[in-house]
Amino acid sequence: MKKITMVLSGLFLATSLWAQTPAEKLIKRLKKIQKRGVMIGHQDDPVYGTTWKWDKQRSDVKELVGSYPAVMGFDLGEIELENGKNLDGVTFDRMRSEIVDQYLRGGVVTLSWHPHNPVNGKTAWNTEGNAVRQVLRGGSEHRKFEGWLRLVANFINSLQTPDGVKVPVIFRPWHEMSGGWFWWGNTHCTAEEYKSLFTFTYHKLSGEYKCDNIVWAYSPNAGYDDFMKYYPGDEYVDVLGVDVYEFDQDNAKYAAALKTSLDEIAVIAAQHNKIAALTETGYQEVKDPNWFTQTFWPVLRDYKLSYVLFWRNAWDSVKEHYLPAKGEAAAPDFVKFAKEKKTLFVNDIAKIKK
Ligand code: BMA
Questions:
Q1: Minimum-distance ligand 1 atom for the alpha carbon of 87
Q2: Does the predicted model carry a pTM greater than 0.70?
Q3: Which of 43, 75, 85, 113 has most ligand 1 atoms within 8 Å of its beta carbon, as the pocket-test mutant?
């Protein structure tokens, strides 16, 4: 009898291991990596920098520290328009191949989405027309919105290696809802409408379209009144994050804001058994050559975070510049920061099993 039970439980264990989804595997791996340190990420890292665009095998980070970042972020904005490229000019074919390459080299990928306003077709920053209400059930744009989600699902389901392994991604839709600059932001919908938007997106993608490779992230921006005000619920979220920027050359103010948010996330993530991350950050135009080791790291090193994502080094905007490139004033300091034992780049995590 004992033998049979052992065989059965062995079988059960084997099936449950086998049955793990790509998303579940990534969650496990994120927890493992976190014990080693914090992964350093960069938005659009391998597709452009301030002085170059669309080159292959290039990266401002790699040119400085000899490794791609551990996390790469990409944005799906304008996938809903079906014209082949996103709002920053990155083609979805290129994005897909960079995502697969990042996975194959042992890295992690996160996706955001700045979709156009579904009511008037203007950008994500156009907040007219009660757009959240209109995309929900019973709203005038509901059908259209369902179509948009199908396009997102198709893309996410298409993320596969040449061997047919589905690539897991951390998807962070409807971000920065605690500000009012996007059509899904706090002053343009109620908290209940926002939660419906999030859960509807979840049910479509992870339910109907079977995107079993999505790890879900919830990420307000710093300065929120109540971090959990728009939280859709534990069953819809795996990663709790916050977006914190330095825009106005005040290191102390940034450090304080970062600390306030991270203190709070640390507590909430522990209570809800979630992974914590700094989902967007950076000092705009990197104006302080010692920022990484003297402002950022002294705060960050005290927290248990999965990753931080520095925003993009835009080819099309001088202001949108958050990591130094080779030859820039802050480059040596970033290299020093990268040498910290606990800052992880893709070379540092490649051996931690996928
Ligand atoms: C925003 C800005 C925009 C950009 C968008 C998507 O935060 O950087 O310029 O188009 O992200 O990358």
A1: 10
A2: yes
A3: 75
**Is 48 domain-assigned?**
yes
For 126-151, how does the pLDDT look when each residue is reduced to its tens digit (9 = 90+)? 999 999 999 999 999 999 999 999 99
- φ, ψ of residue 41 to 5 degrees: the values are -125, 165
Ligand 1 environment, Cβ below 6 A = 75, 77, 87-88, 114, 312, 320
Q: Which range has the worst mean pLDDT, 9-18, 149-158, 207-216, 272-281?
A: 9-18
DSSP for 295-316, please give it: IIHHHHTTS--SEEEE----SS
Whether 252 is covered by a domain: the verdict is yes
User: φ and ψ at 174, to 5 degrees?
Assistant: 55, 45
Domain count, the chain: 1
Give the range of the structural domain holding residue 126, as residue numbers without chain letter. Answer: 29-349
16: pLDDT strictly greater than 80: no
Distance 75 CA to ligand 1 centre (A): 8
Residue 58 CB-density burial (10 A; 0-12 exposed, 13-18 middle, 19+ buried)? middle
- Confidence at 354, pLDDT banded by 50, 70, 90: confident
CATH of the domain at 222: 3.20.20.80
Count CB-CB contacts under 10 A for residue 198: 22
**pLDDT tens digit sequence for 308-339:** 999 999 999 999 999 999 999 999 999 999 99
Q: What is the pLDDT, as a whole number, of residue 110?
A: 99
Is residue 262 situated within a structural domain? yes
CA dist 299 and 267 (Å) reads 16
Query: Is 169 part of any domain?
Result: yes
Residue nearest to atom 7 of ligand 1 (CA): 311
